[in-house]
Predict the 3D structure of the following.
Amino acid sequence: MQFKTNLIKGKLVKRYKRFLADVVLNDGKQVTVHCPNPGSMMNLTTEGAVVWLEPNDDPKKKLKYGWRLVESNNQAICVDTTVANQVVREALEKKEISQLNYQSLKPEVKYSDNSRVDFLLSSPNQHTYLEVKSVTLVREKGIAEFPDSITKRGSKHLEDLSKMVTSGHKAVLLFLCMRSDVDRVRIAADLDSIYYANIKAALKSGIQVICYDSQVTKFGVSLGKSIEFEI
């Protein structure tokens, strides 16, 4: 997935109201930018952190910059949660995710009350419901964690996927780490004990979990290598 325009470097002042951040550009100008991440962004919002912004000239958008990357410990991390689905879609179209078998795919398919699955993968004898989660949190070297805050929506997705398994379909949860410095994903039980209990139940129901890291540069983000999942 390539960014539409060249990213602009800046330094973070603060992130606030979940979807806003103030950034000082290299020319000294301070701007308010859109922060496309509903999570806590734990460990990624340190004042003075190097960030990369994508400018836009869309007259419909009040904010003229979107926050895309942050640098932490010499590692580029994509903070835009919408990018994860774009990366996975490109990988699916290229058949780069070896754990999944399918002949066609459809994004954003309604499959339960007030829910849409990220991708419906179809073959003559099988439907696979694929949900993608963007992962950025690292508190221990080499280990990514999800979620970084309480996620009621994430728990609902687990319920919905379990129902699909009960109905005879296949359901897969894909954790996409938006960084390349990790070799496993674990559930942050201390940050959301309910999600931890729900994912254990979902695994017992037959949901499959797969994990990948990403290659992140100021030009774009692409699927990396398959990594381990631990519960």
